[in-house]
Amino acid sequence: MVDYRNILVVGGGGREHCLGWKLSQSPKVNKVFFAPGNGGTGMNVPTSPDDLEKLSDFARDNSCFTIVGPEKPLTLGIVDLFARKGLPIIGPNKKAARLESSKVFAKKFMKKYNIPTASFSVFSNADEAKKFVTSLSEPPVIKVDGLAQGKGVIVCHDLPEAIRTIDKILKYKEFGSQGTSIVIEKRLYGNEVSFIALCDGHSIVPLDSSQDHKNIWDGDIGPNTGGMGAYSPAPIIDEQMNSNIMKTIMEPTLNALKKSGLSFKGFLYAGLMIERSTNVPYVLEFNVRLGDPECQSILTRMDSDLVEYLEAIAETRLASMSQIKWKKDPAVCVVMTSKGYPGKYEEGKVVRGLNSSMGEGVYVFHSGTARDPQDRIITAGGRVLSVTALGTDMETAIDRAYSTVRNIHWGDNEEYYRNDIGYKAVNSKNIQSEFQ
Ligand code: AMP
Ligand code: GLY
After folding, report:
1. Average pLDDT of each block of 10 consecutive residues along the chain (436 residues)?
2. For residue range 21-53, what is the model confidence (pLDDT) as tens digits?
3. Which ligand 2 atom sits nearest the alpha carbon of residue 230?
4. Which of 120, 123, 153, 332 is 20 to 30 A off residue 307, Cα-Cα?
């Protein structure tokens, strides 16, 4: 048994602020530390999430149970190091984290174990890749093998774009060593959903569904970002689709992890495309952690004690846990960013409007914020805040989130946010009721 009284949350985004908020509600928890945290988190440890040795020293000295937010420490092997030192931690080990850190590995894994995914080929030679795309009947999706901060997937619109993309990655090495290989895959059309499950290596328990908005502009257009907002639940995932995804994707993935000897304890995130013409779910990508901002829209709806489930993961007894309890109310999370993000932006602007009462069921999680010498909250990143609100229905949750967002400003009104977060859920509900 581990001592769960102190928790170390690794990371400094909205996801980690939200995780810490949720974990601190547990009667089992005494202190929650964040490394490095942000201007909104309480007890910050000034350590980079990549400095694994320092993190393990802190966890040992403060008897912490460690929860990892971002993928980088997982892909660097934080779980392997902590295991060697006998320190309790939740997350996949370095080998299993390759499901996220290598697209080539993930696609080959899916193919080997018959997990539904778009057909694909792998190339490291530019000429061969170009010859292949020239032979295709429609433009493909091209993916950089390694981690590329959300910029490594290019949905090509025509052949010249595919050729240029291949050259950028394989010839001009724009992604450095992360781009020594590429996946060229068939483009799928449909609705995207984030499906995240708890996994202890032997059983798997789904969290409620969610959907994020990756593009910078309203209408899901423009460059990809880390995520501009999310909502939960995703109406497209009804009970039948949920069990279909569990049967055809999540359980086969768990069995495949077991068969290939990969140790996975933590949050298994399947980025899915529910194909429009067939209603069949396909895996676009695996992540080995909670999504940001999906986490904020999911955990604010969770009534059960998350610590109990993390304990069960650590002790491999997830199968014996009762069902997770969820609030019926949907949640909407609107991300506020610095103007210019995901390109260049300025930092150090004082954030105004945080002190007014946010109201029950409205939460402002911080990401790129810090405190200045006068203890004021200032901007310190691209994604600055994620404002999350619950409501009796999606429209109410949207209204509540935006009425808070509209009261928060920095600089000379230099904040940016999308105005249409959650509307997809409202529209899809309207479309469904038209046919009922
Ligand atoms: P990934 O990192 O693989 O999830 O890709 C990032 C984004 O690219 C996804 O959220 C999709 O919007 C898009 N994408 C990736 N693969 C495909 C595909 N095979 N067909 C259509 N869109 C895709
Ligand atoms: N919101 C997408 C991600 O966390 O990868």
Report:
1. 79 98 96 98 96 98 97 97 97 96 98 98 98 97 92 93 97 94 97 96 96 94 92 94 97 96 95 96 97 98 97 96 96 98 96 82 97 97 98 96 96 95 79 43
2. 999 999 999 999 999 999 999 999 999 999 999
3. 1
4. 332
**Same fold for the domain at 119-185 and the one at 191-320?**
no
Strands (E), 57-110: 64-68, 89-90
Residue nearest to atom 3 of ligand 2 (CA): 291
Please tell me if the CB atom of residue 14 comes closer than 6 angstroms to any atom of ligand 2: no
Bridge partners (DSSP) listed for residue 50: none
Residue 304 backbone phi and psi in degrees, to 5: -70, 165
291 lines ligand 2 (CB under 6 A): yes
CATH of domain 119-185: 3.30.1490.20
Q: How many angstroms separate the alpha carbon of residue 70 from the centre of ligand 2?
A: 10
The CATH number of 191-320 is 3.30.470.20
Nearest CA to 72 out of 169, 172, 149 is that of 149
In this structure, are residues 26 and 305 in contact, taking their beta carbons and an 8 Å threshold? yes
Which of 195, 207, 212, 216 maximizes ligand 2 atoms within 8 Å of its Cβ, making it the mutation to test the pocket? 212
Query: Nearest ligand, CA of residue 151?
Result: 1
At residue 357, the pLDDT reads: 64
* pTM of the full structure: 0.95
169 pocket-lining for ligand 1 (C-beta < 6 Å): no
Separation in Å, CA 96 to CA 75, 77, 100, 104, 383: 9, 10, 8, 13, 28
Angle 310-101-80 (CA atoms, 0-180°, nearest 5)?
Answer: 50
Superfamily of domain 331-426: Phosphoribosylglycinamide synthetase, C-terminal domain (3.90.600.10)
Query: Measured from the CB, is residue 7 less than 6 Å from ligand 1?
Result: no
Cα 226 to ligand 2 centre (Å): 6
Q: What is the pLDDT of residue 61?
A: 96
User: Cβ(275) to ligand 1 under 6 A?
Assistant: no
Query: Please, are residues 26 and 306 in contact by the beta-carbon 8 Å criterion?
Result: yes
Residue type present at position 300: T
